[in-house]
Amino acid sequence: MDRGTILRFWLPLVAGLWGLGWVFQFGPGPHGLARLIGLLFGLIGLAGVILSRYTLGRSFSVAPKATALVTSGIYSRIRNPIYVCGAIFLLGLVLIVWMPYLPIVLLVLVLMQIIRARREAAVLEAKFGDAYREYRKGTWF
Predict the structure, then answer these.
(1) Strands, E assignment, 46-126
(2) I need a surface site. Which of 43, 87, 94, 123 has the fewest CB within 10 A?
(3) Are 42 and 103 in contact (CB under 8 A)?
(4) Whole-angstrom Cα distance, residue 44 to residue 48?
(5) pTM recorded for the entire structure
(6) pLDDT digit string (tens) for 92-120?
(7) For the domain that residue 105 is a member of, what is the CATH number?
């Protein structure tokens, strides 16, 4: 196993599972059905983020730049799976800790991700043109 795989997949997986487990076990909020549903959403979101990040490989960047058009794996269905799965993960955290202001924070973060996705789409369209436009037609968000 190479260093890149450890850094892109295994380290975030272990850290994410540990953090989510800690918040579920010791975090604030009532222990009930909503917390269990939150854990389920958190696990699904975390798995999606890590799978998406792994699929991107070296094409991942924080700032929008177009190094390669990744259209395989989860990217064959969703253009921005890190944002979608990240929102699912955050929804899980909101359900686990159950604080009244957190849905507002989640909404603000989702709106910020939509803006970010639009900026990335403009960069990808400028670099890959028709190939990106065709890819966009067959995928969601």
Answers:
(1) none
(2) 123
(3) no
(4) 6
(5) 0.89
(6) 999 999 988 999 999 999 999 999 999 99
(7) 1.20.120.1630
